[in-house]
Write a structure and sequence with these properties.
Length: 703
């Protein structure tokens, strides 16, 4: 951190020195030009030398601005604008393009994407005209990253592939290898976010190889950080921390505050995933301090989101505060964009209005001039031809009357057209405002649903916990919407492991709300009432769910269908009860189905007790519990084990035959095969895709 402070001070001093030199040089320039002009022909040679010196000075300013862009962006922006001004004065096209590129990068880091895009496009146009393929590829890469930050992956990939194609057609110099490494890294980020981890790893490792080959610490740090993120996503936390720490060390050595902040943020997220929330908060707070110092809005926004998540895991009230800060910063970016667009529209409108007023003034002046000339001609003719004076006066009056009539018609037409344009502009503004309100409301609803998903995910047992209690098992869980009415549940009491596959009334948000009530009822049965018999648990859950909904003025018959198991792995005893759902046991190549009671957990006119089944499991037995989503899915294929008609339900019989066919496979393989099979069922042809009709939940366990 001490090295970073020294680099900041040096950057400010260096920037001041460059500006002082430029000002001093500008004051001396006129005197030198005047002395040379007096010598005649030698001026051309001196001007050429002076031009080359100006271009060299501009390039030096560009090198300094580029170096400061991540350490002291404010100073870098000042230098880049000076560079642009001097390049324009000297007619130095490549200097202008480089200045636009640097300015675009600084505005990008500030999340001012409109200004960033404008400057990048200016640079792109100049490099295309100059035929500078290497720098053209660099700007194409920057545009790809700009669209990536806006989640426009289609445009981002288009620019990345263009940049890759451009750079691969050039000699493999160190500079071109550096540019190619940057492109490979950005392609990795696209595939990383698209969850194509195999392609992401491939591009990242190619980028890392190139960066280390040319000894570029900046790129090595960036790629290492991205590899850390990808390992963290795949729960390889040790490798993730190794890459993030490597990246942080390189960024600290370079004095790159932005890179250091991003690394610390990612380290904090890994610590949080490992449950070390104290270390996570330390890293995230330090990252927030660094990002705030350089005003990196998009990094600050992401850190607020991460701090909210960690404090929520700790049950701290600060979670809401940080989530509010995250939302305000996210919304402020949108508001700033709207204000800029409105200001631009106002400037365009005022400019058009001023041009029309000037045009009217020019026409009036022209008419006055014509009238004066005409009067002079009339006077001359009156003096020369007195007899024709009356005729000329009549002709003049008639001409003026005709002109005024036409002018009045034109004026009325113009006034009417202008009124129509003003009305159209007002209506367009109202439509834009309404569109903004609708988009804002849609985003709020989407954010609320996503937050509801986080809450629902929190009540679901972690798959790692599920696998720990039932090592030889799988869980296939596919939501129809962001949140679901289906849920899986697990609780442990002594040697008995309770688990269930439940299907609540409805799906989406209504189903998720019912699932919260039902999941809580199951927890109460075990923890508060100490019940261990699946049948008694469902009886008590029915009572609790009914009591929860009795507070409503209307009779609510919502509830859940469920298949509930209580297994003792020491004795291989399985207790089971079902509400409308079955249990399928595969033993020695045969499928045995235990059918649940024909009633759901919830309100009934007449409530019957649920039947409890006791099953003594044998070694090699495989049993399955599930909701009705798999069997009711629409689709169809034309050959293989799933022979059937397009547009038909998968059907319960076909599902059970499928379970019997795969029962001898590895449990993880069974889950993957079931997932692949239902996906192929929903997509029987390339141009025919069926939507998922219900939540899908299947749990398999082998003894």
């Amino acid at each position: 951190m001490k090295n970073l402070l020294h680099s900041q001070i040096a950057g400010v001093i260096l920037c001041a020195g460059v500006i002082f030199t430029l000002v001093w040089g500008c004051n001396d320039a006129p005197q030198n030009n005047q002395n040379q002009s007096e010598q005649g022909l030698p001026l051309l040679k001196v001007d050429s030398v002076s031009l080359l010196k100006e271009q060299k000075d501009v390039d030096s300013i560009g090198d300094i601005a580029w170096d400061l862009s991540t350490k002291n962006p404010d100073s870098a922006l000042v230098l880049a604008k000076i560079m642009l001004q001097k390049s324009e004065s000297a007619g130095y096209q490549k200097g202008m393009a480089r200045a636009y590129n640097i300015i675009g990068g600084i505005y990008f880091d500030r999340a001012d994407y409109e200004k960033a895009l404008k400057n990048y496009l200016m640079a792109l146009e100049i490099y295309e005209e100059e035929g500078d393929a290497a720098r053209l590829a660099a700007v194409q890469n920057n545009l790809g990253y700009l669209y990536y930050r806006q989640s426009n992956f289609a445009m981002s990939l288009e620019f990345y592939w263009k940049a890759k194609k451009t750079i691969e057609g050039l000699p493999r110099t160190d500079e071109n290898k550096r540019r190619l490494a940057g492109i490979q890294n950005n392609l990795g980020m696209i595939f990383d976010d698209s969850n194509d981890d195999e392609k992401a790893f491939s591009h990242y490792f190619e980028a890392l190889k190139l960066a280390e080959e040319i000894g570029n610490k900046q790129q090595t740090a960036g790629v290492s950080n991205n590899l850390g993120r990808l390992h963290s996503k795949n729960e390889s936390y040790s490798q993730a921390l190794e890459y993030h720490k490597k990246s942080f060390g390189l960024y600290e050595e370079l004095g790159d505050k932005s890179g250091m902040a991003i690394c610390l943020e990612n380290i904090g997220k890994v610590r949080a995933k490992k449950g070390d929330y104290e270390s996570a908060l330390k890293n995230l707070n330090l990252a927030l301090k660094l990002a705030s110092e350089i005003g990196s809005k998009h990094v600050i926004k992401d850190i607020y989101k991460d701090l909210s998540d960690v404090h929520q895991e700790l049950g701290s009230n600060l979670a809401c505060d940080y989530f509010r800060l995250y939302s305000e910063m996210r919304d402020s970016t949108l508001n700033e964009e709207n204000q800029r667009q409105m200001a631009l529209m106002q400037v365009q409108f005022d400019t058009e209005k001023k041009e029309k007023e000037n045009e009217i003034l020019r026409k009036d002046k022209s008419l006055q001039t014509e009238k004066i000339e005409r009067q002079k001609a009339e006077i001359a003719k009156r003096e020369a031809e007195n007899n024709r004076q009356r005729l000329i006066i009549y002709a003049t009056v008639a001409g003026v009357a005709l002109f005024l009539t036409l002018a009045l018609i034109v004026f009325r037409s113009y006034k009417k057209e202008r009124k129509a344009k003003l009305l159209m502009t007002k209506q367009k503004q109202e439509i834009e405002i309404q569109k903004g309100e609708i988009e804002s409301q849609k985003k709020e609803i989407t954010d609320s649903i996503k937050y509801a998903k986080r809450i629902q995910d929190a009540i679901l047992p972690r798959l790692s916990f599920f696998k720990k209690r039932l090592p030889n098992s799988f869980v296939l869980f596919k939501r129809k919407d962001v949140v679901s009415g289906d849920f899986y549940w697990m609780e442990v009491k002594g040697d008995i492991t309770f688990f269930a596959a439940a299907d609540c009334t409805g799906h989406g948000v209504p189903g998720a709300m019912v699932s919260m009530v039902c999941s809580d009822a199951l927890n109460q049965c075990i923890k508060e009432f100490g019940l261990i018999s699946p049948g008694e648990i469902l009886d008590k859950a029915t009572q609790l769910v009914t009591e929860a909904f009795e507070k409503s003025k209307e009779t609510i018959q919502d509830g859940m269908d469920i298949s509930l198991c209580a297994i003792n792995l020491e004795t291989n005893e399985l207790g089971w009860a079902g509400a409308n759902n079955s249990l399928c046991l595969v033993r020695q190549g045969k499928l045995i189905e235990y059918k649940g009671d024909r009633q759901h957990v919830g309100w009934h006119d007449v409530t019957k007790l649920f039947k409890n089944h006791q099953i003594q499991l044998e070694s090699g037995d495989t049993f399955y519990i599930f909701s009705d989503g798999y069997a009711s899915q629409l689709g169809g294929v034309e050959d293989g084990i799933l022979e059937g008609m397009e547009g038909k339900k998968f059907m319960s019989r076909k599902f059970k035959n499928l379970l019997l066919a795969i029962a001898d496979r590895d449990m993880e393989n069974q889950g993957d095969f079931l997932d692949q099979t239902i996906e192929e069922w929903m997509k029987p042809k390339q141009n025919l895709v069926y939507e998922q009709t219900d939540d899908i939940l299947v749990i398999g366990v082998r003894v």
